[in-house]
Amino acid sequence: MGLLDEAYLITTQFVVTEISAKKLSRKFPHSSSHEIEKAVEQARDLINYAEHCADMVRKEKLEEVEALKEIKRAHPGFSDDTYGFALNHGFFLTR
């Protein structure tokens, strides 16, 4: 898993603590603190957008397959698995 994917995983815990940021720093020692912060920010943005897309699917304004494509287009750099997790998390948040 890459930095963005790991940042996504800790961001789904709702509160990114200093401890979880340090875990990312240890796992990715060649990444600067700025890169870690940026990855966490990108993960938060992904979660918010996936929630929006999940809501659009629930309202039948977007098909699930198209929602996934849109999430990937709008937030590049994550793994395919993470995009799927994000959309599923969006469905959880919009239930």
Low-confidence stretches: none
Distance between the termini: 29 Å
Task: Quote the beta fraction.
Answer: under 5%
Structural class: mainly alpha
Radius of gyration: 14 Å
- What pattern of helices and strands is seen along the backbone? HHHHH
Largest sheet: none
Count the beta strands: 0
| Helix coverage percent | over 70%
Q: Count the helices. How many?
A: 5
- Please tell me the overall pLDDT: 91
Which of globular, elongated, flat, extended, rod-shaped describes the shape?
elongated
What structural keywords apply?
95 residues; mainly alpha; 5 helices; elongated
Q: If you had to describe this structure to a student in words, what would you say it looks like?
A:
- With 95 residues, the chain is an all-alpha fold.
- It has one domain.
- Helices cover 74% and strands 0% of the residues.
- The protein is built from five helices and no strands.
- It has helices spanning 3-11, 18-27, 33-58, 64-74, 80-93.
- The protein is elongated, with a radius of gyration of 14 Å.
- 26% of the residues are buried.
- The mean pLDDT is 91.
